[in-house]
Specification:
The complex is a heterodimer. Chain A is α/β, with parallel strands linked by helices. Chain A folds into 2 domains: 108 residues, D-Maltodextrin-Binding Protein, domain 2, CATH 3.40.190; 227 residues, no CATH class. A 4-stranded mixed sheet of chain A has the order 2-1-3-4. In chain A, strands 5-6 form a two-stranded antiparallel sheet. In chain A, a hairpin with a 5-residue loop joins strand 5 and strand 6. The longest helix of chain A is centred in the middle third of the chain and has 36 residues. The two termini of chain A are 29 Å apart. By secondary structure, chain B is an alpha/beta fold. Chain B is elongated. The interface between A and B is large, with 61 and 59 residues. Strand 4 of chain A pairs parallel with strand 5 of chain B.
Amino acid sequence: MKHLWQVAHYEYQRNVFKKSFILLLISVPVFITFSIGLGVFLESLEDNPLPVGYVDHAGVFASPLTTPEISSTWVAKNDESVAFIAYSSEDEAAAELNDGVIQVYYVLPADYSETRRVEQIYIEKPGENAERQFYDFMQINLLSSQPHEIAFRTAAGTDVTVRSLDGRRVIPSGGPTFGLLMPLFITMAFLFMILMSSGYTLSAVADEKENRTMEVLVTSISSTHLIAGKILGIVAIGLTLLFAWTLVIIIGILFARQLGVGWFTDLSMDWRAILATLAIAIPAYALTIALMTAIGAMVTTTQEGQSVSSIFFILHLAPLYISWSFINDPHSPLAVALSLCPFTALMTIGMRNLFTIVPTWQILVSMVVQIICALGAFWLAGRSLRLGMLRYGQRLTWRGLFGTPN
Amino acid sequence: MQKTFLVIRQELINTFRRPSFLLFAFGIPVLAVLILGGVKLIQGRSTESSGTNISESTEYQLEAEGFVDHSGLIQTISEDLQDELLPYETEAQAKQALQAGEIAAYYVIPADYVVRGVVEYVYPDDKSYLSDGQQWVIKWTLNLNLLDGNLELADQIWNPIWHLETRSIAPEFQGVAVSVEDCSRPGIACESNELIRMMPSLLVAIFFIAFMSSSSMLFNSIGAEKENRTIELLMLSINPRQLLAGKTLALGIAGMVQTVVWLGAIYISFNLGGSTLSLPEGFNFPVEIVAWSLVFFIGGFALYASLMAGAGALVPKMKEAGIANFIAMFPLFFGYVFGLMAPLADATGSTFLVFLSIFPLTSPVVMIMRLTDGLVPPWQLLLSIGLLFITAYFALQTVAAMFHAQNLLSGQPFSVKRYLRALTGQA
């Protein structure tokens, strides 16, 4: 048993205290920050703060009106508020547009009430905020004869909150909250861990075969202890990554809440969905790394192992490409089948948890399937190491693995 | 020269014999065109035999839904929706009707609806919560009742603009107003068709994959020969520069063939796809995009293949390939991210994207996006090509200088510092 811990400790130490590991550790927060920054940057390109002009031949804006309430809905949507300027003629509006005073102008012809035809004239495509706010501006002015409260409600519209029949799941009109997306985040974190661990797992055995250390090792430790120690060490590496990234993400969320980012105000979680995802993710992770270790022991070089192991990763990601079918019908036979299969179950259940409540029996069956497969994979890993550890330049075949060793 | 041809021949044989290359370069595009052709043929036959239009046969059917109104607002339901929106006194009754299958879902309108504007939409568990369902039915009914059943005003508020005529008076149109919605070619100017809008992003993704795969082939080819020590034998009979020239030309030809096949498949699919891909009549995928794309592929390949070959020359083991690949391809990845996202954010013409389309390290993908999106001023196109080919020439010269026995036979580990020093001619 002491040897097992020694192997685990050595495996952890030799991978974690390296420059490349530190780079990997900071790569995810940097990538997330870059993605958010890119999103904010591209979003900012969509809005334009310049005023919007209009030429009203139809008399809709006889006494132009914007209410503070309707302006507050623009602020709530993170829209940059624009001012509206009236022009008596198109020439006047066009001149101001050419001078860069306004970003766009609209012309309401005299027959607007019958045709509801509006012209939009610009030099460069106006900001999306301008288009949305002109639409609201028109509505609030068409409603000028209505009581204030009714006019506002009609123009601001209705927010529809979706609720499940048993009341366990509530999705606000703005889309899923951070808490509701948590199962999907956990799924992505485990997939990332599988991707990161795969390199360590493959090289764990292949490296020692390549540099002939294996010959010395097998004289002092059993193959079962060796493989178990290596897997323990790799799981610890994965957990270190997960812990560090979770810490950074929590700090990021607290910071975003301080800044008043609306999406992080409601952090209530659906714990059933989170536990269901974890119940699948942990055995799925164990299954994949055990299989990777088995492959690492069977092949002659790390590179060869990498090409075989990429198949597992493709299988894990496969449900992502048919996610549209889960949105349409999250309980379809295909969705249920993929939820029960090893490899595809993690992503499928992670996504289905977002669209629906996955029945408990499916989670339990899937978890049992994953655990049985993981145990089988551990047995396979031990056997492949025993049979393949002293084979050099010769691949251990599947027939050799399952047949009688000679 | 003869030795260079031998290297070209050998690399071409190796590449074209590799099943993964054949599948990626020919299998996938040919299969995509065949599937599209098959679907088109079946659709054509079924339309002929039934004599009906496909879109007519898949007309959307409304489901019956219920509502529980605690606000007392709803007094009027449009005539055409009276069978689809059924009132219930209490939520328990609505729930019972839902469980009995009489309604597909129900809404709960709270007493403070006018103030808060929030309505609950209760779904059975077998439906996706992210699907919008037919929420517009309740929204329209509330809109109508807020205005005391005034159908005409409610309709005007619901849809204040029937026809929005967009025109541009940009200087390139000589101040004459030009209608902006354009679905006759790919680009974000076509607001009514998502596939046409997203074609620039699609081309960016395909070119990025093409650059990555063809440049990686060169990297792997050099790296593998270093790792298995074949390079030591090769160095005895061939000059390192001849080796680099042979490999670059051969894998450039392979990459070019792959790109031509992919572009051909796209050209055929988009021009013949028609109704199968829901493309409007009059849509045409311009052949100029294909022609200019090939020019950018040649320049981009020459540049990135050189950078990858340089990294390959310094990597002693293929295990260290990851970081070397990342460093060499990072600028292209940067361009790819912005090129891919810009059409989604309607920002294809922003100054930053124009800069990236001229900057030689990002232009091979970003300019493809801009070319697919619309007309690029000739000076920008020529400047971008000029800078790309000049940079590619210097990169080739620099990497050729790195291709000497000292680097190729060295077991020194790869480091970013060493790579950058070698590229700047300091090592």
